[in-house]
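Protocol step 4 of 6: structure prediction from sequence.
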Amino acid sequence: MSHPNPSLLQDLERLPAAICEANGLTGAILLIRDAQGTVQFCGHGVNNAIANEMLSIGIYCNLDQHYRSVEQGLAGAEAQRIAEEIKQRNEVTHA
């Protein structure tokens, strides 16, 4: 998406409503990112407060999944190295 197609972006903006309708949901948010790192957001059935709540929950879930990946040795080499350094500094092993 280095040169966004206006009609494609219009279609993307309709996706949250279509997802809600197809699945009986009250609200949905969609984040997209282009090759330059520009992030766009669209939603349906949510105000700013609810969207922020949903995004916060998403961040928590993502961090939790990443933490579990690190614990299981499944994260990337840099994440594993940092986790090991933190454990050594704190002299703590996480169960």
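Step 5 (inspection) to follow. Helices lie at 6-23, 48-71, 77-90.
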